[in-house]
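Sequence design from tokenized structure. All designs in this work follow the same two-part layout: the structure record, then the generated sequence. An example of the structure record is given first.
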């Protein structure tokens, strides 16, 4: 039976490799210096992959965060798909205040605890907590999805963006980060699609299904790291590095 509800599909792409990743520094507005040459190549491969499907399975809107590495990745994709790009400030990854631009190892050493065990405490006194970030990003995600019911949407974001989507769709508590996390390669794709809650009773509404996660098949000529180091992190939390 066919569902009477229009189904929405959400694609989340992590940005390509950035200079802050290779330098292991906190890449906020100050620390982010954009994509490396390898990161640009990854973004181009991702853009070509999406372009090949655009004629028969089109993306209708592209959103990204205000940080340079995501804007550069999204711009490459938007050009390939000939779609106007929209920057959403609320999609930015967790803010770390004056720790921005500093080495992750130094900041976490000064913090003195495992960040994943303290979601309600910022890494820097003027920073944002993980709980605050989740609240902000989940609200932004809800608003974006509400604008595009029945459409296919792409968000070019961070590892944190994918993590926030998992928390949102599975309604996970903020403390779950202490017991489980997710790996995200640069320029990888994660895809969610709405499906009927009950195929027998299609009028029962829709729920979100995870179709693919951390997909990098489009990066055919880009060497991939071992999964254990897919998101290299000198700090014990799963925030961006």
């Amino acid at each position: 039976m066919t569902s009477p509800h229009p189904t929405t599909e959400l694609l989340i792409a992590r940005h390509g490799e950035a200079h802050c990743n290779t330098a292991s520094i906190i890449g906020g507005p100050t620390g982010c210096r954009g994509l490396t040459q390898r990161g640009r190549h990854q973004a181009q491969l991702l853009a070509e992959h999406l372009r090949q499907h655009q004629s028969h399975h089109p993306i209708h809107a592209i959103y990204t965060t205000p940080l340079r590495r995501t804007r550069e990745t999204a711009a490459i994709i938007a050009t390939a798909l000939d779609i106007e790009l929209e920057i959403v400030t609320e999609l930015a990854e967790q803010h770390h205040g004056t720790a921005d631009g500093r080495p992750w190892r130094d900041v976490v050493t000064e913090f003195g605890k495992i960040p994943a065990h303290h979601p309600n405490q910022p890494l820097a006194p003027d920073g944002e907590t993980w709980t605050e970030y989740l609240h902000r990003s989940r609200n932004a995600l809800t608003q974006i999805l509400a604008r595009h019911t029945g459409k296919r949407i792409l968000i070019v974001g961070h590892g944190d963006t994918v993590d926030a989507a998992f928390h949102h769709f599975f309604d996970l508590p903020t403390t779950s980060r202490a017991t489980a996390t997710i790996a995200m390669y640069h320029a990888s794709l994660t895809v969610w699609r709405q499906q009927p809650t009950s195929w027998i009773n299609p009028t029962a509404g829709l729920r979100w299904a995870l179709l693919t996660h951390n997909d990098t098949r489009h990066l055919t000529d880009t060497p991939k790291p071992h999964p254990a180091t897919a998101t290299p992190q000198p700090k014990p939390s799963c925030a961006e590095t």
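Residues 226-241 have pLDDT under 50 and may be disordered. We note this feature because it recurs in several other targets discussed in the main text.
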